[in-house]
Amino acid sequence: MKNTVTTKWLGDMKFESDNPSGLNLTIDAGEESGGHGEGYRPKALMLSALAGCSGLDIASLIKKMKLEVEELDIVTNAELTEEHPKYYNKVSIDYNFYGDNLDEKKLKKAVDLSVDKYCGVMEMFRQFAEVTININYKPAKK
């Protein structure tokens, strides 16, 4: 399956990129790099793609397994290499599940299935970074 994305320069350090979904996004450098900070940063978008890909898997599995989860947030931290080209060489992902009736065993299975089987972005990251997974179970937020 082929995916095509067209990214158009809008001047200065700003670009607009389309997406197969039909939605566009703006990419811009920060002021320290000659941009105006009016868009997403490319490397941070990679982390959003990683969390989003895995999150979609997990949301689907929560539904299929009929699990009770009030909230889920995925916190992704990454370290860049020192030398150019700078890339993420260490990534940690914290899956934070909130609820009063969490089935920890099944939620762990959902995370494991995403991490080890379904999430293609996760597999891409594994090609260049050490990826660490943490799962946290917390009571519902009141």
UniProtKB/TrEMBL annotation:
Q: Which domain of life is it from?
A: Bacteria
List the Gene3D superfamilies hit by this protein, alphabetically: 3.30.300.20
SUPFAM superfamilies in the record, alphabetically?
A: OsmC-like
Q: Name one Pfam family in it.
A: OsmC
What PANTHER family does this protein's entry cite? PROTEIN YHFA
| Name of the protein in question | OsmC-like protein
Organism name? Neptunitalea lumnitzerae
